[in-house]
Amino acid sequence: MFRKYGWVIAVFIVAMFAWGAFSAEQASGADANEYVGDNEKKCGMCHKDQVAAWKKWPMAKTWDTLQASKDKKDSCIPCHVTGFGKPGGFVSIEKTPKLVNVQCEACHGPAKDHLAAPLNDVEKKRNTMTKPTEANCKTCHNKDSPHYKEFKYADAVKALADHKPKPKK
After folding, report:
1. pLDDT value at position 46?
2. Is there a contact between 76 and 93 (Cβ–Cβ < 8 Å)?
3. Pick from 70, 3, 83: nearest CA to 39
4. CB proximity list for 78: less than 8 A, separation 6 or greater
5. Which residues contact 145 (CB under 8 A, 6 or more apart)?
6. What are the φ/ψ torsions at residue 100 (nearest 5 degrees)?
7. Is 65 helix (H, G, I), strand (E, B) or coil?
8. By the number of CB atoms within 10 A of the CB, which of 64, 83, 139, 160 ranks highest?
9. Which of 99, 101, 74, 104 is nearest to 89 (CA)?
10. DSSP label at residue 37
11. For the chain, what percentages of helix, strand and coil (3-state, to nearest 5) are there?
12. 169 contact partners, CB below 8 Å, separation of at least 6
C-alpha cells in the first residue's frame, strides 16, 4: 500500500515544507514593500508638481491640525498620519516622525518598491503603487469622524485634478 500511495505522501510532505518556507518568508517581512516617509523629499524628486499641489491641501498639515485641536484623542491619530497600524507605518512621533501627516503613501501605499524600480521601467513604477479608491478615502472621511463633513468621492477626485501627472509632450 505504501508503494501505491508513497509518491502522494512524498509530494504532500515536500509541498508542506515549501508552504512553510513561503509562510516564514512572508511573516518575516522579506520582500514586503515598506513605508519610507518624508514623501515631500522622496516623491518630490520625480513628482514635483504633485507634491507642490499636496502641500496646499489640508492633508499636508493633518498632524499640526490634530495637535492644535482641543479635543484630540489617540483614536484620531490614524487619520492624521501615514501607515498607522500597518507594518512599517507610523508608530509614534518619536519613532516615526517622517510619517506624520497624510502623505503620498497614505493613499498610494508604501513606496520602497516604487523608489527601487528603475526609472525607465514605467510599468514596474506604475505597478508598485496603489491607485487610491473611494474605500481608501472613506477610512477617514466617514461619519465616525468627529469633524465629518459630507464626503463625495467624485468631487474629491475633481478637486485633486492638479495632483494627476501631466501627459508628456
Report:
1. 93
2. no
3. 83
4. 84, 85, 139, 140
5. 79
6. -75, 155
7. helix
8. 83
9. 99
10. -
11. 55, 0, 45
12. none
Instruction: Give phi and psi for 81, each to the nearest 5.
Output: -140, 180
Q: How far apart are CA 30 and CA 54, in angstroms?
A: 31
Interatomic CA distance for residues 80 and 75, integer angstroms: 10
Q: Which three cell numbers stand for residue 80?
A: 492624521
Nine-digit cell string for 15: 509541498
Please tell me whether residue 100 adopts helix, strand or coil conformation: strand
Cell 492624521: give the residue.
80
Locus of grid cell 510532505: 13
Give the whole-angstrom CA distance, residue 21 versus residue 70. 50
- Residue that is written with C-alpha cell 519610507 in the block: 36
pLDDT digits (tens, 9 = 90+) for 39-95: 999 999 999 999 998 998 899 999 999 999 998 899 999 999 999 999 999 999 999
CA dist., res. 20 & res. 28, Å (int) = 12
